[in-house]
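In the current project phase, the collection of sequences with tokenised folds has grown. A representative record is quoted in full directly below:
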Amino acid sequence: MAATIELNGHDLGIDDVERVAVGGASARLGPQALEQIAASRALIDRVVADDTPTYGVNTGFGRFVDVHIAPAQAAQLQLNLLRSHACGVGDPFPDEVVRAATLLRANALAKGTSGVRVEPVQLLLDLLSAGVVPVVPSRGSLGASGDLAPLAHLGLVLVGEGRARHGGETLPGADALARAGLEPIVLAAKEGLALINGTQFMAAIGALVLGRARRLVKLADVAAAQSIEALRASRTPFAPELQALRPHPGQVSSAANLYRLLDDSEIVASHRWCGRVQDAYSLRCAPQVHGAVRDAVGYAEGVVAIELNAATDNPIVLADRGEVLSNGNFHGEPVAIALDMLKLALSELASISERRIERMLNPALSNGLPAFLTEDGGLNSGFMIAQYVAASLVSEDKVLAHPASADSIPTSAGQEDHVSMGATSAVHLWHVCGNVERVLGIELLCGAQGVDFLAPKRPGPAVRAAHAAVRELSPHLDADRSLAAEIDAVAGRIRDGSLLAVVEAGSAPLL
């Protein structure tokens, strides 16, 4: 059983997010969180009692900031906020994204800077434990006053409205709660606003993709190594003394992986004195490209790690100072730029991978491999259309890699006159990551087929492990068959980390 994670608003990590969102772990509030929540709520209760003008507590929202709300209407104000802001559209987010966002919102509230009672925070965590997943449309957030629309759909389930999935069914929010043995809450002052002001959907996708990206940068090295074997290219460009002359951290790590992955290879040894001077860039420059992606992933990881434990509410409650301050921490620009960089970087893994695929299929470039990696070309098309699929995915990634954060459209009658569009960055990043996993899956399939044609010479032990893992899912292509399910199967093992685990078990952990 997955361990339970204790939240305090300060030290949640990317691995924790993946454990809860994908691995099914639960979370609970720690003693520090309970103290922080109680202190901030006490200050909000004083503000309500004194009727001190405070944004979102006894005022309207956005352009209605100057409209005073009477204490008797405080609860209705918060409920109206959730209802009015829950107008997202489009396909719902995947369950793992919603679970991650639920965890992140609970962690942000546990920080004690939002002024909520413990009840809404606990109910968020109860949703995770009980397997209740709110249905949250994926389009409609500007990523500026946080992810307002998505978080409002999430928050509606807490009050027994909206829709949620439970036990394989999509139900009205109240029914989903009831089936899980949970009860809706009645919102108190500020709680509706505290539930929706934040960057949690952007950060959730960022954290989940970064978990996958850590594996992708290693699997890209594995796929490249197998392709290098199949194309009988040189490992000399990956020598450590060459990397030391241009020591970008990612490049050094990627080159070290490739050099070791190609170690003890009968194929490499067989063409050591072949007389070829240089290989194509997609082979020779793999560490420079893969390494640049690694460095970009490192930057994005630093940003998201901060965001997971950030206070992104407005206003922020500073209990120790007795102040409730309006601020701009909800603006998603730091995350938006990082996610835009990440999707651009990951798309390059697919771009260079597709070029290696083409080299293995093209008889003018493949160093003697049969055209399209098929024994009976003409009657069979082999991997011809698999390369089409890779090219299509790479082309789609080029469109999705355009930086959404370069745009801004003013909203709320000019009150919100600059927005990050970071939610669009996140949605596009999610699709880019999936496309990269599929393209690398196609390269691994092609590389395995190419290596088959070089038997009885064998690749190095690590590449042999990768080849064996691919062959468990996809046998040698003797005659044409549909490869769609096999591409998805390999991509799935890339995504969940099991293919990387096999490779590392067959050699040693990759950098």
Notes: The radius of gyration is 26 Å. The longest strand covers residues 89-92. The beta strands are 5-7, 27-29, 89-92, 133-134, 137-139, 163-166, 169-172, 316-318, 323-325. The chain has a mean pLDDT of 94.
